[in-house]
Write a structure and sequence with these properties.
3 copies of one chain form a homotrimer. By secondary structure, the first copy, chain A, is α/β, with parallel strands linked by helices. Chain A has 2 domains: 336 residues, Alpha-Beta Barrel (TIM Barrel), CATH 3.20.20.140; 98 residues, uronate isomerase, domain 2, chain A (Orthogonal Bundle). In chain A, 51% of the residues lie in helices and 8% in strands. Chain A has a 4-stranded parallel sheet, covered by helices on one side. Chains A and B meet through helix 17, helix 18 and helix 19 of A and helix 4, helix 6, helix 15, strand 9 and helix 19 of B.
């Protein structure tokens, strides 16, 4: 746990108990729809956490032994937990260790330090908790003080779990996010199949480009009606360009006759169409850029997607977004949030861009950079040019539900440390710092994502 | 204002009162030629400051309402100032806030904090000052302790304002800088027209490449005679390459028949010609690289150039300058100063290059990086490889005349903080720090730009 | 010398006296084979140190006057030393100053500060030491507490000096490293000649690709028999790709008829072959990437290679290594250590990659970044994602033998400062820090390079 003293402690005290606004993440809505107990400690804390199993894999631990993917199906949860506990020192210095320690001590009330020797004892104590109704998803959601939680959902999702939550008596707010990449990106292996499903879902005739656009509008409207306030895109290489005749390219792609150039051009065009639809319907647009996915082919083949081999690459936001911004970037009320894994773009590109374009907000430190030092570098590199009001506040961006309070806590400590430093350097006084702290902790996220109740 | 204590305060005290050497910037020479009072607080402090209006624009304020460009012609200065004051909190954490606060308190003697409520009062108090002879350009120049101020002037400028200053009884030193990009870069929309004007200005026959070179030499000689000690280039993508037959490319371009490839090749060749002329005439060469200009087409169309939409891009100094350096980089007495907006090149490219090539000096943190944290990152990343003597000292690079003392003050505080840290870490002792402090504050700038009187 | 107090001093005290493991560097094995006295102070400390003469050259000192290369043959050592001493202040703030001061005070026992005035006195005192048997190479090696020292040797080297060391009664461990670039990279001007020499050395028929591979295997086996535990590659632009028919490309290249594309493809293929051979024979593979060599053609022509004009460029490790990693990256017991001069890849690429692939380890801060601030940036940017166990410990990577203790000392101080900060921030406690300190100082290097005795 990061120590805070003096001004940082004062500032932290004022924001640590604020509600959690979680406008972007990957929790499964079915958890809150079904409200079933979580199965066991390993399945809850180890198996789905790519931060955890990637580190173990990097040191020679087998993914199958960790219960990952199809080859891991038969693994014994207790053995998995032992394996994790034995390698616990590997996480020294990483945010995973902070998150996991927070979950163990703050959420699960376990003070015994984790080690190979204590693995079984801790496993048992967690297992006990999981059958306690206070540790079911909805109860934890309430206990965590979550004001609103956004999930991330494919364009073809029927949002039945969100519907079930809405229909239930539970008052927790869980909203979907529209992530349409698999119907926009022709290089997706299921693109053609997905077009068919899109037609089916919407009743639109997607044999024309206009029909395709109408289908997307219909899905956006459905998501919005279900509570969505935002869309999201995960893009490896940022590219936007307006096509004069998208229909022609669409027809080639729809018939499976498009080239790679067509695919790239079409996706680059569709991002602008999406931005234009955001101008129409008010959904906030998000771009998560620069992650090269599934770079380990063997792991992908055996264990599937999202298995720790997604690696950041350098990004060119300036030229990549030029076409999109020049089409809609000056439009009132359009909001586009950019997330980067390439920290070199904080000061060079994102802060100057967000410090000019009315639509842009800089997303918080993402993924590998959602860490104590990553947060410090972020503030150091974005604030002087973008100020505070061009930031999008915090996202936990996690599928590890139990870690949500830990992640917001790390951010809030980082906010307190940053503001303490600003005060110490004379950049501004404590009064200003006390106004900025809750802004960074909660308000900017709520406002940017239009999640005000 | 950045707090300084202990060693940093000691070091700062010794350099804060040193004269200001301003070897690169964008003040208008007519201010000092005419010595008219500045018109009003908004026109002085808000309207021309792209740091200020870009931030306001990013938060939805209309540029026209801020008096910017042709659409802003009719805006009422008092209303502009109110608009600025109302949004003053947006600048928390930015260097603009530091500069503006310094101008208000130190230069204009206004202690009332700026806010929507105090806007009118402060406006009136500034307006009063501006009619006071002590706040005319020449008086301020003298009061600021400016030893020399360089302006930046197009190759076709007649330097009549500089002539008027020289002819006046005022002893302030204002020197021009030769910025010839609009007669070197064939992609400039006015390139052909400018060639005609170049011929007219010099009497040279620019129908041959040799005549073109002769005309450039003539302009350089004229600038030098008028006091210039340096040239300057603003280049988006750094590229130099020596052409074996520049005449042929020149002829195509001169007839408006050159391709984009020709234009790029020609400009890349001309930079080397400029470097060679610097070897001949001793003018120090500057390259400001990697700013993509006017990226917001709508703002460019309505409000013109330099309206806050210039965004940095990644730069490759190593391959970009290889041809130039291999032609003149080992020549005695040639000086080339490099400015980057891509901080990743500080440690990776610029420091190793400046730590080898006799001609190279690293320019100070530029533009978005001319900030407290930017200065700290600069020292952190350049000194260990380049040392101190391969740096070019400080530039304020501003068109905001009143902010010049503030900017030099921020640098001097940054110097003091850096040197304090070096002493604390045992890198060197206080005696060395006391020698390096004035070097960084004034001497390196004066020496590198050959501005010694 | 960096000051350490409190926790840092405690941690440093525990590791400062540990043996030196030097798994990668450029000392000449003949020093230890012959054990002749070093010739004179200038030839020992100034002439071979490209960190030193590049800085002097950047400030206008002639390389010939510094005794560098053929033009420097006749230079008087005492004059060289005077020239260096006169420019000693240029090194303020650089690691060279730290290293040189350490050598003068700790190794040579000279407390008189270096300056133009003291140059002769210090020169004489060093010269006296050099004739003392205690300052011969083997005695210094022992006195420095070097457990093992790896040299870097071309694939065609006969390793006769290593053989002589082995045959001697001296017990110092000096092992070779297999650096085969000049027989792998067809763009090497001597590539064809080197193929011939490779055939001669091994007795293999290199007229077929299989024969070529057999010859490489033979050389690797020879190096391994002579004590080598690692290979090394110095590559400007990282590129790997598996060729389906390498024989065809090889035949074109072998006949001198290959294109540049062939050369690049072949080298990119051969890196994968080398990785596969490492899987077979257990030699640890190293890649030093992203240095553009000999960028100053005039210096190269007159003074030769490695004369301070090697400049880093941006690197793409992700796409560059994708083919290699997908072929062998999941193989048990394969180790590949990556060294970068592009610090932007620490957090963006190397830490995520090393935090996933079982084979990868991140090399320590290299060359320009082997400095106090460079070490701090390294820890700040790699640990949170890669942890500590995916690091390769420290390399001094030097040809300046006397500076080895100084370089390890700087690293150990940097380790202590980093760990102190971790403890202060509450990332982990002192007990963990005390376990990680010797790991970073010695154990990771020994283990990663398989140098355990």
């Amino acid at each position: 746990m990061q120590h805070l003293t003096g001004t940082a402690a004062t500032l932290y005290d004022e924001i640590q108990g604020l509600p959690i606004v979680s406008p972007h993440g990957h929790c499964a809505p079915e958890w809150f729809a079904a409200d079933d107990p979580f199965p066991d400690p390993a399945t809850l804390l180890v198996v789905p956490d790519h931060y955890v199993f990637r580190m173990l894999y990097s040191q020679g631990v087998s993914l199958a032994d960790l219960g990952v993917g199809t080859p891991g199906k038969g693994a014994d949860p207790r053995q998995i937990f032992r394996l994790f506990a034995r390698h616990w020192p590997l996480f020294l210095g990483t945010p995973s260790r902070f998150w996991m320690s927070y979950v163990l001590t703050q959420t699960l009330g376990i003070e015994t330090p984790l080690s190979e020797e204590t693995a079984d004892e801790i496993y048992d104590r967690i297992a006990e908790k999981l059958v306690d109704p206070a540790f079911r998803p909805r109860a934890l959601f309430d206990q965590f003080g979550i004001e609103v939680l956004a999930t991330t959902d494919g364009a073809l999702d029927d949002l039945s779990h969100h519907q079930a939550i809405t229909n239930s008596t539970w008052t927790g707010r869980v909203v979907p996010t529209f992530r349409p990449d698999n119907v926009l990106d022709p290089s997706d292996p299921d693109f053609l199949k997905n077009l068919g499903r899109l037609a089916m879902h919407t009743g639109e005739d997607v044999s024309s480009f206009d029909g395709f656009l109408a289908a997307l509008r219909a899905r956006r409207a459905f998501f919005k009606a279900m509570g969505a306030t935002a869309t999201d895109h995960a893009i490896e290489v940022i590219h936007t360009a307006w096509l004069e005749d998208p229909e022609r390219v669409y027809q080639r792609l729809r018939k499976g006759m498009g080239s790679e150039t067509d695919a790239r051009a079409f996706y680059g065009h569709m991002l602008i169409e999406m931005a234009q639809m955001s101008v129409e319907d008010g959904l906030v647009m998000q771009i998560h850029g620069g992650s090269r996915r599934n770079t380990n082919a063997a792991v992908m083949d055996q264990f599937g997607r999202d298995k720790g081999a997604d690696i950041p690459i350098a990004v060119d936001w300036v030229r990549g977004l030029e076409a999109l911004l020049n089409r809609v970037g000056n439009t009132p009320d359009f909001t586009l949030i950019l997330f980067t894994l390439d920290e070199t773009t904080y000061a060079r590109e994102l802060a100057p861009m967000a410090g000019h374009w009315p639509c842009l907000r800089i997303g918080p430190p993402w993924w590998f950079h959602d860490s104590a030092a990553g947060i410090a570098r972020y503030f150091d590199q974005v604030v002087e040019t973008a100020g505070y009001w061009n930031l999008a506040g915090f996202n936990d961006d996690t599928r590890a539900f139990l870690s949500i309070p830990a992640r917001h806590d790390m951010w809030r400590r980082g906010v307190a440390l940053h503001l303490e430093q600003q005060v110490a350097r004379g950049v501004f006084g404590l009064a200003d710092a006390r106004e900025i702290a809750p802004l960074l902790a909660v308000d900017l996220a709520r406002d940017t994502y239009r999640l005000t109740t």
